[in-house]
Each structure stands twice: as C-alpha cells, then as structure tokens.
Amino acid sequence: MRIMMFNNLFLKLVSGASIICFVIFIGACNNGNITSPTPSATETTHHGIMISTLVDSPWPDVPVYKYPGEGNIIKIGDEISMGFDVNSRLGQYWKASFDEDYLILQDNKVVDLDPLSPGIGTTWFRFNAIKEGNTSINYELISVGNNTLMSFTFIFLIVE
Questions:
Q1: What is the DSSP letter of 43?
Q2: How far apart are CA 133 and CA 138, in angstroms?
Q3: Pairwise CA distance, residues 33 & 113, whole Å
Q4: What is the domain count for the chain?
Q5: Mean pLDDT of the chain
Q6: Cα separation of 23 and 92, whole Å?
Q7: Mind giving me the DSSP string for 46-100?
Q8: How confident is the model at residue 6 (pLDDT cuts 50, 70, 90)?
Q9: In the prediction, which pLDDT does 48 show?
C-alpha cells in the first residue's frame, strides 16, 4: 500500500513538473514562433538560423556575427569574428574557406568550455576586411575521415 501511494505521489510530481516545463516553453513562444534575442548594434538582423556558442568570444572588442547568409555589411579595416561549437574529442574540427583578396585571418583558436576538461568548446575565427566588394566565408565541421557534417556560409559586402 505504501509503495502504491509513493508511486502515485511520484507520478503526480513528475506530471506537475512536465506541465510546468511545458508552460514555461509556451511562455517563451510568440504566435507559434520562439522569440529570439534582440541583436546588438553590431549585428545584422536575419531571419533563419542563428549560431549560438558555448563559450564567449576571446576578443570582446570584436563584433561577433551569428547569422549565416546575406546582409552582413562591414567596412574596410573592420574586424569580425565567428564561433562554432566543437567536440574535438570526437575528432571534429571547423575549417574556414575564404577569399584572401578580401579578408585576412587574424586568429583562430579553440576555447574550451571547461579548462580542466579540454576538447569541448568553441572554435573562434577572427578576420580583418582589407578590400571593397562581395565575399563569403564558408565554414565546415569536419569529422574523422574528412566527412563534412555541416556547413554555414556568411556573405559579406565590404564597403569603404
């Protein structure tokens, strides 16, 4: 009898917690669309995918671009950065392809989520715009065996 009462109480608690989580999730939605954070002044608003990262940028003074695709306008001399989460314990790494006539790769580093447990974190890329025109940066997540697991392309218009 006591076991049955404990099971009923446990089921009520689990059901209650599930309902609370569902209500919180619904509260984060707006007309069926999950609300997204308002971009900062250094970001361009895009509709679609947003890259979020486990670890903040190692360069706090450099704007972070989180929205792949078109609509990114920067000036010659501007520095930009992008970060992508990675699990190097699985042999994964991010590769960037870009036109060196328009951009210079200033730095590329992996910042671990937990320094005591390396291998899981964010790969950060930092670029400098050097020439006016249209260009793109294509990022690929490469796995063991050189298979592309996913890719993102950022398209930039560089102006004077």
A1: S
A2: 17
A3: 30
A4: 2
A5: 77
A6: 37
A7: -SS-----SS--S-TTSPBP---EEEEEEETT-EEEEEEEEEGGGT-EEEEEE-T
A8: very low
A9: 57
Question: Who's near 90: CB < 8 A, 6+ residues apart?
Answer: 143, 144
- CATH number, domain containing residue 118: 2.60.40.2020
Task: Provide the residue type at 68 as one letter.
Answer: P
Beta partners for 29? Answer: 34
Q: Which two tokens stand for residue 16?
A: 């209650």
21 and 75 co-located in one domain: no
Tokens 């392309």 belong to residue? 153
Q: What is the pTM of this model?
A: 0.69
Tens-place pLDDT, residues 78-129: 999 999 999 999 999 999 999 999 999 999 999 999 989 899 999 999 999 9
Domain limits at 17?
A: 2-34
The answer to whether 97 and 127 have CB atoms below 8 angstroms apart is: no
Residue that has been written with the tokens 């009520």 in this structure:
12
Q: How confident is the model at residue 13 (pLDDT cuts 50, 70, 90)?
A: very low
